[in-house]
Amino acid sequence: MKNALSMYWRFCFLLISLLITAEVVSQNQPSEKKPETEELDEVLISNNTAQKSKKEESLNVETVNNSFIQRNLGGSLMQSLQKLPGVKTISIGSGGSKPLIRGLSFNQVIVVENGLKHEGQQWGADHGLEIDQYAVNRVEIIKGPSSFIYGSDAVGGAINIKPLPLPLQNTFGGSVDLIGKSNNAQFGSSINLFGRNKNWFFDSRVTTMDYGDYRVPTDVVHVYSYAVPLYKNHLRNTAGKELDFHLSTGYSGERFKSVFYFSNVHTKSGFFANAHGLEPRNVDLELHDKSSRDILMPYQQVNHLKVSNTTSFQLGNHAFETQIGFQNNFRREYSHYVNHGYMPPIYPEDMYAPQDLERQYDKDVWSFSAKDEFRIQNHQITVGSNVIFQQNEIGGWSFLIPSFTQFNAGLFAYDKIELNEKWFLNGAVRYDYGKIKMKSYYDWFQSPVSENNQTELEYLQRSQDLTKTFDSFTWSIGANYNPGKLSLKANLGSSFRMPIAKELASNGVNYHYFRFEKGNPNLDAERSYQLDLGVEWNQQNFSFQLTPFVNYFPNFIYLNPTSAHDIYYGAGNQVFEYEQSKVFRYGAEFQTRYYFLKSLSAEIGAEYLYSEQKSGSKKGYTIPFSPPPSVLFGLNYEPQISFLKEPYFSVDYRFTAQQNNIVPPEKKTAESHVFNVAFGSKIKTGKQDISLNIQIQNLFNTRYLNHTSFYRLIELPEAGRNIIVSMKIPFSISR
């Protein structure tokens, strides 16, 4: 650690010295300035809105725009946001991931796209987020409980993907994005086309990606006790493809706006062949190693369709907004049929599911929401309601969760009080009602059952008809104080989460983790209470932000390993059961930036989280996927170069501490030191600017483990050195 830090700061000192010298020389050079006319774009407006919101809202919210995503482009949207303190991912290979905010994920963090809550199969660590990051313009990350805004599932926070800004009036244009990555030989493109007259508009995008097996800085990994050799460092069968389509169209007037959104995200990606199923040694290495781009079994195909309409209009002092939405998530997992337990050795010809279809989930979601925002003197009040109905059907020859239907409805009221220019108060209340109905399920094969010294063959029942209802009252109060350059905020709130079908009624083998998972129908709704604080200082050349929090769960839901082993399915897998316990958590994020010169700055971003179970069979342990402390040191240089626009060069070093605070079957994770480099610019070409961005991730090809990775349990290191080149070529024709 000391040697790495010493090397980093020596490098930074040398680079600062050289850059300061170059800056002084450039400032002393005579230059002929030409008058320029620039149009204020909508990103700048949204940035000002974000700063204003931070001063008035007591929740801790971070906002990033398309430029940030472009400079930090990863394999998925969440991987591109990992530079923010408190935000991590559970990565599934190089092309998929799900959000982790302050150590909470799955159904404890929600994602909202264009006002519509994203509903996929987010309960599984192997299920990525079906979002096209090229269709994202601005993202709000809410750290902390957000149930009073979004209802159930927002106990840990929210990722709010804001709608794209409308095209300017009387314009027609678009852009072409190109990307290439060295580690997994990825190539892709995204084409955008938009147009608008005075009131009618459209904005469309098509994105396609194709990538091969990604590489890791090792030639062997250990899948539990079995050593798996890797051919040319490739993680066999982790290739994938993606094809996305987006369209928004509608009408925008002075007091009325109605927008229709349509999107379809389709992905096909392989699972690491040696880490799926019951026997990791039964893999045809010769077949899998013939090509790094083919997608063989096991693999998954996911298609996510969304259709919605958002209509807003003003009537006197009231601003109304309604939204109607439909989405379908269709996910299939394919794997060779291998009989285990009492399954027949030969797959029946008359089975309802194809022989290679291991699992299938088909979820339909209908939603409606409405809200009214108005002012009464110094009160800005918002009242609203939402209704969601979802139906999830299952298929395939393997069972884990039953088919179910779920209904959620909520009412809320929010009041922001402006006492004066410095003081703001916030208060909110919400009531939610939820009902989930799970269907019975019987094995398609018979198993021997012994009773009274007699053995008979029976179709075992894996799930019973079960109906559960939940309701909850949540609240939030907060205050903001902004005396000049200093900003202070505090927020105290409660939140809740309905148990999902997996937690209530799962009863099968999870082939990704080599374990048997069993639900608990007696679970209560998960509740959380959290205090958030914020301190921020901003001046011309220096800024910092500190956001500590304290969190308490009286009944946190978690998957607990037991001493039992199943006898009917698999090879005696260990049984894991869902339980509830009291959990206490606290932590903080810290960010600071200092400008040595107008074009040269250094930044530090740090995060810390501690969690402990205060009751239950795992009392004294942490909770799963608790990220270790980490610090990101960054150096940024943005020189003035006549033929370039907004050029930049950055180098950062992330130190991640060891994680010894674990809960079995997790393993301790050693500390890591990773360097990244990025540079790019906008190149002036007439009226349009071409953006070019280059990243070198994991510069020194460091072998390290990520504690929150999907593949952490099998000692699989993170991807090796990766050079990412992306280019954005805009075009515009004004009428």
Automatic annotation (TrEMBL):
CDD domains: ligand_gated_channel (cd01347)
Cellular-component GO terms for this entry: cell outer membrane
Record keywords, A-Z: Cell outer membrane, Membrane, Receptor, Signal, TonB box, Transmembrane, Transmembrane beta strand, Transport
Pfam families linked: Plug (PF07715), TonB_dep_Rec_b-barrel (PF00593)
Major location category of this protein: membrane
Limits of the TonB-dependent receptor plug domain: 54-158
Domain TonB-dependent receptor-like beta-barrel stretches: 239-699
Signal peptide (UniProt feature, chain positions): 1-22
Listed InterPro entries: Beta-barrel_TonB, Beta-barrel_TonB_sf, Plug_dom, Plug_dom_sf, TonB-dep_rcpt-like
Name the record gives this protein: Iron complex outermembrane recepter protein
Cellular location(s): Cell outer membrane
Coiled-coil intervals, chain numbering: none
Keyword Ribonucleoprotein attached: no
Similarity comment: Belongs to the TonB-dependent receptor family.
Topology within the bilayer: Multi-pass membrane protein
Gene Ontology biological process: siderophore transmembrane transport
GO molecular-function term, one example from the UniProt record: siderophore uptake transmembrane transporter activity
Matching Gene3D superfamilies: TonB-dependent receptor, beta-barrel domain, TonB-dependent receptor, plug domain
Organism encoding this protein: Flavobacterium nitrogenifigens
